[in-house]
Amino acid sequence: MRISLAVLVAGGLSLVACSTSTSGAGTTMSPIASTTSAPTTLATTTTLASTTTVGPTTQAPTTQAPTTLVPTTLAPTTTAAPSDYLGEEVIGYSVQGRPIVASHRGTPGGTVILIVGVIHGNENAGLAILEQLRTMPLPPNTDLWLMDAMNPDGLANDVRHNGNGVDLNRNFPHDWTQIAEPGVWEYSGTGPASEPETQAFIAFSERIRPALTLWYHQDLYRISPSNRSDGPLRQRYAELTGLPIISVTGGTYTGVAATWVRTTVPDAMSFIIELGPTLAADEAVVHARAVLDIVTMV
Ligand SMILES: [Zn+2]
């Protein structure tokens, strides 16, 4: 929305720029008027400054407009906080001292929704979906928390594990078992919730008690089926995004975060969305819309 405004302004100002520069040149040539006209010229120049890059020639706005409009339609992202922005919270720190941040918006006291972008540090495509969710209009009565990364070390280092080499999605204190040792992909840590990231998440979610928690992973491109109350939400999300409903297999699924949430927080729904290897900008929008759709089913 903001970009399209800029384009409109750019288009308008390019016309203004033409007439102003002509009259401006005339004004500058008049020594008497130069003092009084200076502020006017300055003001105009200031307004034009942001436009200068867009349209130094008259051709530029015409060629740029369609290019700019395409991403505007697909990604209504602005840098400005939405009017329902409620702030940001550091819920804890990682092994390597990075903050774990949760951003809050919507209606306090409404249906609490928590979206986690990254738990496996090298699976970060979900971040683009959370970026959309920062500004998209929310359904009424939605109390939304966005946690970009519960594993900021893994994200920074582009590895699955946290700073201790632990797979945080095997470290939760539900059905925890010892899986292998450091260096193994599913290393579960020295004990249930042994990791500071897991402890921080537990304290946070026990406080906010999310009715629905979504976890983004890659890159199996699927959502597991479920016979529980979240089954229809998974089905709906899958329909809206094109993800197939197929069981996730091939690992040892103990100490899993999503399972811990739904077995610990009363009546909570929580499930994993396995994205593909990549996620295009328009797909991120589709996913964000799917999130806001199933939120109404909670
Ligand atoms: Zn994963």
Characterization of this structure:
The relative contact order is 0.13. The chain has a 6-stranded mixed beta sheet with strand order 1-2-4-3-5-6. The protein is 42% helix and 16% strand. It is built from 9 helices and 6 strands, in the order αααβββαβααβααβα. Helix 7 runs antiparallel to helix 9 (281-295). Residues 1-77 have low confidence and may be disordered. The protein has helices at 2-29, 33-52, 59-74, 127-133, 152-157, 196-208, 231-241, 257-264, 281-295; strands at residues 85-93, 99-106, 111-118, 142-149, 212-218, 269-275. A hairpin with a 5-residue loop joins strand 1 and strand 2. It is of the alpha/beta class. It binds zinc ion (ZN).
* Molecules bound to protein: zinc ion
What separation lies between the terminal Cα atoms? 29 Å
Please count the helical segments: 9
Strand content: 15-25%
Spatial order of the strands forming the largest sheet: 1-2-4-3-5-6
The average pLDDT score comes to: 81
How many strands, what sense, and barrel or not for the largest sheet? 6 strands, mixed
Q: Give, in order, the helices and strands.
A: HHHEEEHEHHEHHEH
The low-confidence runs, each spanning 5 or more residues with pLDDT under 50, are 1-77
**Structural class computed from helices and strand pairing:** alpha/beta
Q: How much helix is in the residues?
A: 40-55%
Radius of gyration: 25 Å
The best one-word shape is globular
Count of beta strands: 6
Any descriptors?
single chain; about 300 residues; alpha/beta; 6-stranded mixed beta sheet; 9 helices; disordered N terminus
